[in-house]
C-alpha cells in the first residue's frame, strides 16, 4: 500500500464510463443534477451538527440559543464566546497541552514502531514468530480490558497525573508496526544489499536507506498518530486529574460539565478544539483517505 | 483509528517465509532493534493483559491490598441485573450499528465512486466526522437532539409531531439516538473501505454482465455484492470491535441513562473501576467482554473465510 499513498487519486474506470463529457444527452444531464442534489442532501446530514455548533457559538447574548422554529443564523454573529473561551477558560493551555502530547508521542512512536517493524520484516531470528503472534493478539485486546491493569501499572510506577503516564503506553502502536513491516518488506532487497556491500552496518542501512524510502508510510503513521493523540479521551481521562495538564479533549468535556448553563461558551470551546484537527485533515486529506482505503488491502 | 486492523482472515500475512540472513549480520542485531519496542510491549501490553486475568479473581480498591476471592466477582457479575442490562445494551449497539457499517457506507461508496466534478469534495465531507473527536461531536449532537433543536424543529414544522421528542432522555429513543451518532461518525471509514473494494473490481466484469443483459440491479447483485464480501467481513470485524468498546458517546451524551438504558459494557467497566473503585469486579466484567469478543471474532473469521471461498 505504501506505493499507492501520495501518488494522487487512483481512479479506475467504472461501470458506466463517461468518455464524452462535452455533450451529454438531456436525460443524462437531469440524472447528473439529481445525483448532485442527492450528494448535497447527504452532505447536509454530515455537516449540520458542525454548523449548529458554530452558529451557537456565534449567537449574540440577546438571541436565544434555541428557538421554535430553529434559527441557525446568528444575528449578528459575534465572537464574544470565543474570546471568553480563550481568556477565562484555559483553552490556550489545553491546546498547548495537546500539541505537547503530540510532540512527545508521535515522533517517538514512529521511530519505535519502525525499529520494531524492521527486523520483523527483513531478518530471521529466534522468537520472530512468537513476537509476531503476540502483536497480532494484542491488536484484538479491547481498550476496556487493558484500561484497568494499565492504570494500575502507571499507578505503581508513580506516573498517575503525569504526562509520562499518558505518553508511555501510547508509544507502541501495533497497527503502525504492521503497516511499516509491510512497507519494509516491499523495499527491494538489492537496495539494502548494495548499502551493505558499501560497508554500511545494519543500523545505517535502516537509518539511511530503509527509513528514507519508506517515508510515505512513516508519514501515514505520523498523521494517524496526530489524529489519535488529539482525539484521545478515555486514557487521559483516567490518568490525569490536574486540570492544568488537560489536553483539549478533556477541556471540552470539562467545559460541558460546568458549561451546561453557558451554551455559547461551550460551543465556542468545542469549535476551538476541532479547528486544528479539521485544518490538519483538509491539508492532508488525500493521504488520509487513501490510507483509510489502503488499510484493508494491507 | 489505529484499531483499524486488517482482516483477520488474511492468513498470508502470518505466513513468514524464510529470509536469508543479510550479509555480515550478527545474531544479536535483530534483538538490538527490538529492545525499545519489546520493552514497552512487555510493560504496557503483556503485563497488563496477564494481570487483567489475575485481577478478576481479587477484590481490590487500590487503597487496601488486593484480596483473593476466587470466583466471587464472576458470581456477583452474573447475578447482577445491571451487568446483564449493559451487556444487552452492548448487543443492541452491535446489531444497531450494522446498517451503518455495511448498508449505508456501501450505498455511499457506490454513489461517490464516479468520475464527477467535485466528487472528492463530497467524499471529504462524508469523511469529516471520522477525524473529529467524539467529545466534540457529542457536544454538537447534544444541540441537534435538543427539545428545541434542529430535528425537533423540522419534525414540528412539517407537522409530524406536536410535542418535542426528548431523544436522549426518552427510554425508547435514547439508545437509537446514540447509535445514530456513532453510526454517523463511523460511516466515512466504512465508505472508504468499500470504495477500495469497488475500485478493485475489474471493469470488464461489469461490461460482461451488461453484454449478458444485466441491468443496474443485476450488476449490483451478481458482480458487486459477491466481490465486495471480503470487504464486508473486514468492515464487520471493525464494527464489532468498535461497537463493543463504545464509551465516549455514552459518557458525554447520556451518562448511561435514562436508568441504565444506554450504558454500554465499556461504560459499566469504567464506572465500576474508576467511580466505584471495584477494580477486581470491573476486571471480571472486562474479561467476560474479551471472551465474548473472541467468540465473535472467531465467528466472523469463519464467515470471512466462507466469503473468500
CATH topology of the largest domain in chain A: MetI-like fold
Q: What name is given to the CATH topology of chain B?
A: MetI-like fold
Q: Total number of helical segments of chain A?
A: 14
The averaged pLDDT of chain B comes out at 87
CATH architecture of the largest domain in chain A: Orthogonal Bundle
Radius of gyration of chain B: 24 Å
* DSSP, total strands of chain A: 0
CATH architecture of chain B: Orthogonal Bundle
Can you identify the CATH superfamily of chain B?
A: MetI-like
Assembly type of the chains comes to heterodimer
Task: Give the class-level CATH name of chain B.
Answer: Mainly Alpha
Radius of gyration computed on alpha carbons of chain A = 24 Å
- State the order of secondary-structure elements of chain A, H for helix, E for strand: HHHHHHHHHHHHHH
Task: Give the low-pLDDT segments of chain B.
Answer: 1-18
Q: Measure the end-to-end span of chain B.
A: 29 Å
Strand order of the largest sheet of chain B: 1-2
What fraction strand of chain A?
under 5%
CATH fourth-tier homologous superfamily of the largest domain in chain A:
MetI-like
How many domains of chain A, as an integer?
2
